[in-house]
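Is this the right way to post structure tokens for a design question? Let me know if I should format differently. Anyway, here goes:
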């Protein structure tokens, strides 16, 4: 592990001998860059990070893998997507090779948003052409609490209007833009306008085809939903921390637990992961 900084924000990084590299800011415990190396050692950035992102520690960073917890979006009384994406996490020493661990425990700062006691641990494991991000949340208090959440991964794409996302055919879908429920009929999702849908998670990995690049995306069974979001040009133009063409270079594929809030009794914990594997 090396200590770094990104636009003045403290961060930790990890690199493999092959060249693969991951960078995680302490603000939000947010993976902000993952570069995979090919056999010739050439690096490809696989995550999108907005060049207009605010890095002053007062706003969530736009891009990478925000941890949205303990509330997904506006589905509850807390701030949108929860507050842990907007608090400083701490790096934790680990003996596990090629692994970064960050932790956020409840404090006065978290109690300003949510009264509960918790410990959240993010474990980021790097392997050649692969990244696995795991979230563990533990109830350290003496009353049960429940949550929703997501690993809100912004994948970098060359042109969102040309990519296809495979593997959700047959999944139950709530289209948040149209507020309609359906079963996904298409073998491949395509993008270009605002796209914001919650799918019932599938057991087989998804495949993102982006020109010649291919990325396999899988998630733990504890994440019962997969959210797919791209703001498209009109919404993107209204988001101050995205450039007007930002939507073209990102696609969020999120490992989520939304529709049924998870109850965590005192002393118990809940774990989830998302794994990304660059096939080409
Ligand atoms: O702008 P935010 O708070 O990071 O949220 C971004 C998007 O996150 C997605 O997960 C939601 O499905 C969208 O509805 C939301 O707009």
């Amino acid at each position: 592990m090396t200590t770094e900084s990104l636009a003045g924000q403290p961060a930790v990084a990890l690199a493999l001998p092959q060249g693969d590299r991951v960078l995680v800011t302490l603000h939000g415990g947010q993976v902000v860059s993952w570069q995979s190396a090919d056999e010739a050692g050439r690096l490809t950035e696989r995550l999108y990070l907005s060049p207009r992102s605010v890095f002053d520690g007062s706003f969530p960073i736009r891009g990478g893998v925000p941890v949205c917890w303990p509330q997904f979006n506006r589905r509850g009384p807390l701030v949108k997507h929860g507050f842990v994406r907007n608090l400083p996490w701490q790096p934790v020493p680990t003996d596990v090779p090629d692994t970064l661990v960050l932790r956020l425990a409840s404090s006065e700062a978290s109690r300003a948003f949510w009264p509960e006691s918790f410990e959240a641990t993010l474990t980021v494991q790097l392997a050649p052409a692969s990244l696995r991000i795991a979230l563990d949340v533990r109830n350290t208090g003496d009353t049960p609490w429940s949550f929703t959440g997501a690993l809100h991964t912004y994948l970098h794409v060359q042109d969102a209007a040309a990519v296809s996302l495979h593997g959700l055919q047959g999944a139950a879908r709530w289209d948040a833009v149209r507020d309609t429920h359906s079963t996904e009929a298409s073998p491949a999702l395509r993008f270009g306008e605002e796209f914001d849908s919650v799918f019932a998670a599938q057991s087989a990995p998804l495949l993102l085809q982006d020109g010649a690049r291919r990325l396999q995306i899988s998630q733990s069974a504890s994440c019962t939903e997969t959210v797919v979001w791209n703001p498209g040009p009109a919404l993107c133009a209204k988001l101050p921390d995205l450039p007007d063409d930002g939507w073209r270079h990102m696609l969020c594929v999120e490992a989520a637990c939304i529709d049924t809030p998870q109850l965590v009794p005192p002393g118990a914990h809940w774990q989830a992961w998302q794994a990304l594997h660059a096939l080409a």
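Format looks fine. Someone answered above. Worth noting: The pocket of 6-O-phosphono-beta-D-glucopyranose is lined by residues 73, 80-81, 152, 176, 196, 227, 229, 254 (CB under 6 Å). The chain has one domain: 2-278.
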